[in-house]
Amino acid sequence: MERATGTCVHYQLDAKASQFTVQAFANGLMAAVAHSPKIAIRDWKGEVRFVPDTLGSALLRVRIKANSLQVLDEMRDDDRRQLQRVMNDEVLEAASFPEVRFDSSEISAEKLNEHLFRVRVNGKLMLRGVTGDLTFNAQVAMGVNSFRAYGEFPLMQSDYRIPIAAIAGGTLRLRDELKFSFYVVGRKQESAPND
Q1: Three-state DSSP class for residue 54
Q2: Does 88 have pLDDT greater than 50?
């Protein structure tokens, strides 16, 4: 994307006003009756910088605490505890890899109307000690001192050498593909933090 003329404005992502979830999918014989758990990402932070009228010169950084994922679905307490343990200890290895990081490398924007943009974000995702390319699309609605962005993207666990989770004594396995969905609110900051 071309460097935009104008001053970049810094926005902090408001995790409390946002929703960031992961949908896993059951696989195999149990898929028809088994849970496809929906998981909330609870402890994360992010920042965005861009030229307001064009979304030019954009930059996105997100940091997630790996042990902050929480199962949203109704299920038995034993199943919930087991799924949480498998996620933290076996899938994400949160003790060894406590942070998930995303840094954009290029963001392109198409203005749909005065306040609405379609954006394409390319960047690097560091997950469980593996860094890979990640691209996703989002819609961004601009306000006076804030914006809202929403979208979704798939992620293959095998791309990050993540073992596919099995629970209930191995009778329930999850698919390789996960679906991430986000609705985030960014709030304008008076000054950008130091790099």
Answers
A1: coil
A2: yes
